[in-house]
Amino acid sequence: MRIPGRNINKHGKEGGSLRQKGSLTAECAFVLPLFFLAIVIFVSLLDLYRLHILIQTTLCEGAKELGMYAYCTENDSGSPVGTVTDAVCIAYGTGKVREILEGENLLGIQGGINGVFLLGSGFSNGTVTLKASFLYSGPGGLFSFFPIKIQILGQAQAWTGYNGSLFPSSSAEELVYITEWQSVCHTSRECTHISLSIRSMPAENIEEQVNQYGGHYYPCERCIDDNFKGSSVYVARTGSRYHSSRDCGGLTRNVTAVKRSEVQNLNICSRCGAKK
To answer: What pTM value is reported for the model?
Structure first.
């Protein structure tokens, strides 16, 4: 004898199972496309990052190379590009970008290697600017209906030489020269007080000799005493003392260049002042 209730329960379980399977199918149909879309976007971002690094590195290198010749004139044989102008920047940058992208996978760029343009590049205010732009639609052109416009910039300061505008003349301060004694300061390193012309002379008649100014030589209080019996002495043409040693402190000068404001308490050397 068959029990009707059991048949009803069996059909109920089968119906619930079919509904569950249908729900899973609907969820998969909704989730899988989103999953694949996320994968495609992730791959596109990686590809775009790769292209961005390649192109920006090339633009920076090209800008530096152009900046090295920015000082050259049109007829300067030392420049491989002639005068650096906006047109030269566009042409040179285009050649550099195409050279580095040759053989690369450019499926994400609309137009491939010919789809990268450098309009807007130029040379202005001492700066070389290379600007690349292209439309990016993802690997295989998956987003060709709404491509993204990408712009990449590379700049370098041109080597145009120093024009004196960075340091106004009012900020320049006069340098003077002093020795370890610091009794006076000198405006010239060639002053005869600090740049001595030294020669050796016989000691027997030294007191009869005269210096450049007609004055006689007297014994140095540092290296000459009453017991000195040397056969020769050392004198400076502009000095007034004779010395037993070439290394005597009276003949050596440790000269230092300093700012005039640092030694305002010292007077200008009479010889330097006389030249002025």
So the answer is: 0.47
